[in-house]
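Notes, p. 3: input format for complexes.
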Amino acid sequence: MAFIHPLVILAAVICGIYTGTLGWKRFQYKRGKAPASAFPWQRHIRWGRRFIILLWIGSLIGIGYVLYKTGPALTTGLHASVGILILILFSIGTSFGLLLSKKKGTDRLASVHMGINYGTFIIVAVQIVLGVLLLTFFYPG
Ligand code: HEM
Ligand code: HEM
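Output follows (141 residues plus protoporphyrin IX containing FE):
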């Protein structure tokens, strides 16, 4: 049971990395290094949506499992706090993406969208280490 959360998060991270590689093509276009057609606009949005939905579902499963096992949730210390931070940052980053997809954004917003989403992946790397530690030491067997 304790593995369900990491597996859903892993699926989310794969979707997110793929979304990020598609976004990079748009960034290359903006710098004049790729044609506009290199950026698959709709596919980027589709995979971005899958990413944020899986991230939320995976995190809620983690919270639900802690709740079920120990009573109160958000008690795993750093992993819980960093997890909430990640959820907030990606929710903001992808909501800017939604604005951009409705053509309501500027180049500046696109850069902020990119900065928040790429930057948060650095925190995700830390969170994966914290998660593996949690799985190993706090949930033996
Ligand atoms: C629901 C989720 C998402 C939606 C709806 C979305 C939408 C968009 C749209 C419409 C653009 C084009 C903006 C423009 O040039 O006017 C864009 C650009 C971009 N997106 Fe996303 N996106 C999402 C998630 C993500 C994620 C998770 C990442 C990174 C991991 C990402 C990275 C990028 C990058 C790097 C660009 C290029 C920015 C630039 O040209 O300066 N996006 N996104
Ligand atoms: C983006 C990455 C991740 C986020 C946002 C995240 C978020 C969370 C949250 C919010 C909780 C609930 C904590 C609590 O209520 O105290 C949790 C629990 C947990 N997380 Fe993560 N997590 C991530 C990645 C990982 C990874 C990669 C692993 C393991 C390899 C992991 C292992 C665990 C474990 C073992 C729990 C306890 C509950 C359970 O096993 O379902 N997490 N996580």
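Residues 2, 5-6, 9, 59, 62-63, 65-66, 73-76, 79-80, 83, 86-87, 124, 127-128, 131-132, 134-135, 139 surround protoporphyrin IX containing FE (ligand 2) (CB under 6 Å).
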